[in-house]
Structures are given as structure tokens and as C-alpha cells.
Design goal:
It is a single chain. The protein has about 170 residues and is mainly α. The chain has one domain (about 25-165). It is about 70% helix and about 0% strand. It contains 8 helices and no strands.
């Protein structure tokens, strides 16, 4: 439990203190903190998952000064995650109270789920930020580049966690 809390604090701190202040390009805004929602334990009730998504989105909105954008995106992220995971055979892992990760789900299902959710998340927040002045070219370039960097960083996190268990 303490390890999980420490991990959450480190990931949120990394997002707020490092990734939110990266100035690589005007097209790259990685949102890696969503890995916390992605890897929620499989046995959690759906209500708790939604509350956790709401809380994490609210925390990010408070630190980033965005008016509910991340909260809305996190709620949709959790709902879509639940829909995708319901199609995967993870009942045994849920009974063992494991978190969703490469180790528990396997590389292909985890990669597919992560890819879909990360791309959705980035395009959703870009769409919300751009309402009234949507620039398709900017949104496409930013969404793809931010998603690729986020996927890479999440892959590194998963590799580090996988090495910890082997």
C-alpha cells in the first residue's frame, strides 16, 4: 500500500514538476499521469474507479490551472478503460487483486489498451482546449506527438516495474 502511494506521488510529481514544464516544442505535451488510471487494480469497483478518475483529474486541473479539462478527460478515460477491459479475460487477475500491467495482461493487450486510451486522452483534451477555435492541423500534430512521447514514457515505467518483479 505504501509503495503504491509513493508511486502515485512520484508520478504526479513527475508530471507536474517535469513534464508540464518541458519546452521541447509547441506540439508536445505528454500526459503520463494517466498511467495511474490505466494501472488501477482490476478488482476495484467501477464506482471507485470513477471517483479516483475524478479526484486525479481534479488534482491535475488544480496544478495546471485548467477549468475541468483533465477532470472530464480522466472520467472518460476510466469509462473507456472499463469498456476495453471488460472485453479482456482478466477475471483470474481481478480475483488475485492485481493491477493492470504488462505483467498481468501481456504485452499485446496492454499495448492496445494503452494506445487507444492515450490517443483518446490527448485528442480529447486538445479538442476541449480548442473549442471555438479548433485547428485540425495543430490538433493532429500535437495529439500524435504527445501520444507517442507519453507511450514511450509509460513503456519505460512498465519496463522498470517489470524488471522489479523478474
Amino acid at each position: 500500500m505504501i509503495n503504491r502511494i509513493t508511486y502515485w506521488i512520484l508520478v504526479i510529481g513527475f508530471q507536474i514538476l517535469v513534464l508540464n514544464h518541458l519546452d521541447l516544442s509547441s506540439y508536445i505535451y505528454p500526459q503520463v499521469f494517466v498511467t495511474l488510471l490505466l494501472t488501477l487494480p482490476l478488482h476495484l469497483k467501477k464506482t471507485y474507479q470513477i471517483l479516483i478518475g475524478f479526484g486525479l483529474g481534479l488534482i491535475m486541473d488544480l496544478f495546471i490551472y485548467s477549468p475541468g479539462i483533465h477532470m472530464s478527460a480522466c472520467l472518460w478515460f476510466v469509462v473507456i478503460r472499463m469498456l476495453i477491459l471488460d472485453r479482456q479475460d482478466l477475471k483470474e487477475h481481478a480475483n488475485n487483486k492485481l493491477e493492470y500491467s504488462v505483467r498481468t495482461a501481456g504485452f499485446s493487450p496492454f499495448f492496445y489498451t494503452t494506445l487507444v486510451l492515450i490517443i483518446f486522452y490527448h485528442f480529447y483534451i486538445l479538442w476541449l482546449e480548442g473549442i471555438g477555435n479548433i485547428n485540425i492541423e495543430y490538433m493532429t500534430i500535437t495529439g500524435i506527438s504527445s501520444s507517442l512521447l507519453s507511450l514511450t514514457i509509460i513503456g519505460v515505467f512498465q519496463a522498470l516495474k517489470l524488471n522489479k518483479y523478474t
